[in-house]
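Two proteins were folded this term; both appear here.
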Amino acid sequence: MISPLVRRLVEVWKYPAADTGNLPQLLADNEHLVLFFPGDPERYPEGDDVAVILPELVRAFEGRLNAAVVHSENETALRQRYPFKAWPGLVFLRRGVQLGSICKVKDWADYLEQIEALLGRETGAEQAIPSVNL
């Protein structure tokens, strides 16, 4: 089940719906990508809050960060590849390497500080993207 606010990210904001089939292309097309895992809206209503905040975060990091939405049928497979601690989750990637995640709803200043730190994080060559077979 997808909430109307999460659906709006795809339909209005034109964020791609990330799945196991298109993830390799999304990673190739975006140096920095945040995957939004909203979770079941009945169990994790905070997903709607993050769905409202996400476009503002992308705007705040304009040109440095793009977003994709992971729908429920792909959440398990993609969460195994990019683990995070709690729903809803934002998983930050650089060329497919996980930089970290931000879970649940945060204060605006915390988002800005944490995302800036994640985007500035170094990644080693040993973490290069293996061929993605999800």
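Next, the second protein.
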Amino acid sequence: MQILDRRLNPTGKSLENRQRFLRRAKALVQRAVREASQDRDISDILDGGEISIPTGGLNEPQFRRGPGGIHDNVLPGNKTFSEGDFIPRPEGGGRGRPGAGQGGGDAEDAFRFMLTREEFLDLFLDDLELPDLAKRRLTEVEHEGVRRAGYSVSGSPVNLAVTRTMRLAMARRMALRRPSPRAVELLEEELAACEDETRRAAIRAEIAALTAKMRRIPFIDPIDIRYRRFENVPKPVAQAVMFCLMDVSGSMSEHMKDLAKRFYMLLYIFLTRRYRRVEIVFIRHTDRAEEVDEETFFRSPATGGTVVSSALEAMRHIVQDRYRPQDWNIYAAQASDGDNSYSDGELTAQLIQNAILPVTQYFAYLEVGEAGAHDNPVMPNSALWGIYDRLRSEGAPLAMRKVSTRSEIYPVFRELFQRREGKPAA
């Protein structure tokens, strides 16, 4: 049985043609999606929308005649050139491209089309991944797929095992000595050529016996029929947990909190879209830390002093209680302005170095600042940045970035979670 999907997309082309086009122009479409994402709110990313790519990227390969050979061209109405004259090359390089303007400078029309929500997100997250997703353990029976499990005597007609059925039927016919049609045909030919009535009667009796035996022993019997059998099999599932640590203290301005929340919204979309078995733990902190739900994390206001070690301590306790490092891939993403209580610096360094980084696969730190703050070369690094930078230089699985404007969030997010091939985090 074959199922053909002939649903139409909004432009009237078949879904199969649309998907074929997206595969062919994938690089151009991906670049357009990334550029479009930088100017959108995070919530707008979920809605798909219109993008444009240059028409030059839509050319399809085609066969042409190669150079060579002798050609005679007849140009009727020619009053300028005679046979053997050379035609000068036109200035400007010959043929112009469609859309080139007359006033100087080239232009190229853009091909605009709509992407659905699913298509936009697939392209948006295509080359992102959680680094070093290595530890695997089968914790729950999940029927991820099917595998061949021999044959059965009952099943769906689409799973009929023709080869196995014919093999069993042949073995049964041979065991029961079922006459072949060819033997009957030979007897009928002999009957037609024989003139001896006694012999003809014997031949007729033999033909009748063989025919009766053939009817008793069918060519294919129901006991011969076999069906391919499949069974659901549990597959190991990569378990991962992401800890989202966000500073919501008084030193974080509304602009900084907005940048941090946008980063975490991107992270949330990425994790829930790409991975089935990833748990997300939200921790926010001032001078004390608390585990909160998604709604509180993104929307509930808070203020107070700054003690970064409280968030790291909360993460350490949660890991000990719920996520054994031997079984779970543990990740953490922290967003802060880098400010911390002076007396808390040593404890923060000890926790991150001795308790957090040894059990995490990857730790991403995003330092947010006011617009233009990170462009000042004389601006000293924050206390938290100094601690993390020292650990990173010692080879810890820690990545660090700074952002001060909304347009920097998406590029930085891609840098932190872009697919790596054997490269350490930077």
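Confidence is low (pLDDT under 50) at residues 94-107, 135-141, 422-426. The first strand starts at residue 49 and ends at 54. These notes refer to the second protein only.
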